[in-house]
Amino acid sequence: MNEQPLRPIKRSGAFSPVLMELTIIILFFAISTSIVVRLIASASAISDESRYHTRALQAMETVAEQIKADPVGDGAVNTCGVRSFSVEVAPDLQVNAIVTGDPSPKNGTLYEIELNVTGENGAVYSLDAARYVPDAEVSP
Hints:
The protein is α+β, with helices and mostly antiparallel strands. It contains 1 helix and 4 strands, in the order αββββ.
């Protein structure tokens, strides 16, 4: 008799279960990685948009406070008594303001302020404000 140990018969072209499991694990890892990369990219885009909206809102608040401090401004109004101007806060951010003076309230003037922020994609925010100035404070 022959005293050689028995060896399994090798079949050509057959995958071993370990290789199949390793292939499946690599596939799941690749899919998971692509999902995480996509999530990070979308979070970055949302963060950039949120940063832009925050800057726009702060710019509007700043311009509104400046107008409330001096509603007459340079005094340049059109024939209807409306003062319209734009403030460029940044190359991608512009605040448009319309100030209308209404002298009809008793003993003063009511200034209505309309602000809107325009960016690369058009209007972003809009804000309406008002300031009443008694006649004693109105400059000539």
